[in-house]
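Action item from last meeting closed. Structure (249 res):
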């Protein structure tokens, strides 16, 4: 997305639609993680981060994953989001076997089926809040007018209707994360993955952003997985896990 610039956005005709995103269908379970292994090798040392970890998450619920710094929370979330490859085991999201997808399918999965929120907002600095939220949909092929309408509605849900024309530098930390929350939902993903979404915020803003994230996911029937070590944020989830010694409990 970084190669985009503002003039390109206003000049471009509607992008072609259609992706190879795998369909997410199926019963009560959305996410199935079976025996996932991940290690990092540096020099002669092998760091076993995930050691055969298994769990399931039902469609439409929220789950919080806690654990000490360095326990592998981001690694796990990145594997679920198709950003990193597991070294063993299987991850299924709906009917898509993420661990078997070729790069093209993975890229479609990431852009169409998953919404990401990170500790740092990753908003594009040259684009307004409204443009930041609409861009993923526009890039995925939605007509500009529709994408803008949807982005406006999502920004209204995170109480930012009066800030849509602001650039990231003109927003507070909490407001930027609220934009990131709105953006994570624009492509109507089945799964929202949030990695320490309130990690940079003070307690009041943290509580507000977390509430908007949970409420937004609930309103749209999204499955939400939040990595956090904020007890208040974690306690709002319907199920809770702890990552410890490479396993989830
Ligand atoms: P957490 O998010 O729980 O703090 P991470 O998943 O980021 O933990 O990292 C888990 C462990 O793996 C840490 O010890 C980290 O240093 C290590 N690690 C993460 N990414 C890499 C990498 N690309 N290469 C080598 N080690 C890594
Ligand atoms: Mg992390």
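Sequence:
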């Amino acid at each position: 997305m970084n190669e985009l610039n503002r003039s390109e956005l206003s000049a471009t005709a509607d992008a072609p639609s259609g992706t190879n995103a795998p369909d997410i269908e199926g019963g009560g379970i959305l996410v199935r993680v079976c025996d996932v292994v991940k290690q990092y090798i540096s020099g002669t040392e092998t760091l076993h981060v995930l050691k055969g970890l298994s769990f399931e998450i039902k469609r439409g619920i929220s789950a919080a994953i806690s654990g000490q710094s360095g326990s592998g929370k981001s690694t796990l979330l990145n594997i679920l989001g198709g950003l990193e490859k597991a070294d063993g085991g299987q991850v299924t999201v709906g009917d898509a076997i993420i661990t078997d997808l070729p790069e093209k399918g993975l890229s479609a999965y990431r852009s169409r089926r998953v919404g990401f929120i990170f500790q740092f907002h990753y908003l594009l600095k040259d684009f307004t809040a409204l443009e930041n939220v609409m861009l993923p949909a526009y890039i995925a092929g939605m007509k500009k007018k529709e994408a803008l309408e949807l982005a406006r509605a999502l920004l209204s849900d995170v109480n930012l209707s009066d800030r849509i024309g602001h650039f990231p530098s003109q927003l507070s930390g909490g407001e930027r994360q609220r934009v990131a929350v709105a953006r994570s939902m624009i492509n109507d993903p089945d799964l929202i993955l949030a990695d320490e979404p309130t990690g940079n915020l003070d307690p009041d803003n943290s509580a507000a952003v977390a509430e908007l994230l949970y409420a937004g996911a609930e309103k749209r029937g999204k499955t939400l997985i939040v990595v956090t070590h904020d007890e208040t944020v974690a306690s709002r989830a319907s199920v809770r896990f702890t990552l410890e010694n490479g396993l989830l409990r």
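Note appended to the action item: The helical segments are 6-11, 73-80, 103-112, 129-139, 144-157, 173-185, 203-219, 231-235.
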